[in-house]
Amino acid sequence: PNQTFWKITLPLIRPILVYTLVTSLIGGLQMFDVPQILTNGKGDPVRSSMTVVMYLNNFIGTSKNYGRAGAVSAIMFVICAVLCVIIMRTTRGDDERKVKPAKAVKGGQATMKVQPKAKDNQTGAHAALTARRVLAYAVLILLCALCLFFFYVLIINASRPHADIQKGFSFLPGSWTSITTNFTNVLNDANVPILS
Q1: Angle in degrees, 0-180, between the axes of helices 176-188 and 123-158, rounded to the nearest 10
Q2: What is the DSSP annotation of 132-180?
Q3: What is the pLDDT of residues 92-107, one digit of tens each?
Q4: To the nearest 10°, the Cα dihedral for 170, 172, 176, 179?
Q5: Do the Cβ atoms of 57 and 41 come closer than 8 Å?
Q6: Which of 71, 121, 123, 179 has the smallest number of CB atoms closer than 10 Å to its CB?
Q7: Contact 67, 173 (CB under 8 A)
Q8: Cα 86 from chain centre
Q9: Cis omega before residue 45 (within 30°)?
Q10: Phi and psi at residue 111, in whole multiples of 5°?
């Protein structure tokens, strides 16, 4: 029974466990509502229940410093990405690390099966299948662009100073000095929950 669990059951449920770990990690890092309600947005006692999203909310809600809030969000994204990569690497199974193609051996020599060529009357079905694939890829690319637009806005806001953001939205990023100023202000702040 013990070997059955480790050699059969656990490898079969590994993808579900990885998904659960990653979504739980992201959900935990985005915890906002419970500590916000319990501590009235202050993270008391002594900021011990302050989460990164509550810290981010202080910049958006009270000081309207969107550049610094964008920098906090970008740092949170990098932390989530690194932790997710660590989870994916550590939960990878042995079968995923070393994948070797199987060869059919007959009489000591490798043989290959040759597939028969498609008939000419199947070209219409092949063209329809290709058209459906192109349409599906176009829809997926459009959805990805829509999802990534908000991340682009986040990066643009992290790269601009607070005064420029207050003037209005721009699709162009700010200067490198604004980027470094926003990120150094966040990293030098002693009240960042994840760094303290």
Answers
A1: 70
A2: HHHHHHHHHHHHHHHHHHHHHHHHHHHTS-HHHHHH---SS---HHHHH
A3: 866 555 545 555 555 5
A4: 50
A5: yes
A6: 121
A7: no
A8: 13
A9: yes
A10: -120, 155
Task: Tell the residue number behind the tokens 């981010």, with chain if given.
Answer: 56
Residue 195 has which token pair? 């760094």
Q: How far apart are CA 50 and CA 31, in angstroms?
A: 10
pLDDT at 126: 84
SS3 of 5, please?
helix
Quote the DSSP letter at residue 60: I
User: What's the full length of the chain, in residues?
Assistant: 196
Q: CA-CA distance, 160 to 152, in Å (whole number)?
A: 13
- Are 162 and 65 in contact by the 8 Å Cβ rule? The answer is yes
